[in-house]
Specification:
9% of the residues lie in helices and 38% in strands. By secondary structure, the chain is mainly beta.
């Protein structure tokens, strides 16, 4: 997973300029039919309609610079087609973009489908 510039800048400010960074109280996952890039969420096309909603996700403790979701992250059941999902993003409770990545295989979401990231299915690694 890559970091959005928002998080890169916040970390640099906190570490090198002593400008505090407040950790978010919650994280949600957003889905995209066109992948976002480092500049922000609007650089991609987020799924919309058909009962789509960003979904809360929790993460365990890091080990060796890496951590994964510690429970399943399940999106609402689609009430209309969402299109072909190719990417996702982790977003804080204020709507700030943190991390993004491409799915290992795109997934077409049709009416009645429900996408889930299994526990351990989303891994963030710092290098």
């Amino acid at each position: 997973m890559a970091k959005f510039y928002y998080l890169d800048n916040a970390i640099l400010e906190a570490v090198l300029n002593a400008i505090a960074y407040s950790s978010p109280s919650s994280i949600v996952v957003a889905l995209f039919t066109t992948a976002p890039g480092p500049t922000g969420l609007s650089s991609g096309v987020e799924v919309s309609g058909g009962s789509y909603a960003r979904t809360a996700c929790t993460f365990g403790s890091p080990t060796n610079g890496s951590l994964s979701n510690n429970a399943s992250c399940t999106f609402p059941q689609a009430t209309a087609p969402w299109g072909t999902v190719v990417a996702f993003a982790l977003v804080d409770n204020s709507g700030n973009p943190l991390y993004y990545g491409n799915l290992t295989a795109s997934k077409t979401i049709n009416t009645g489908d429900q996408l889930t990231f299994a526990s351990g299915g989303l891994t963030v690694t710092e290098s």
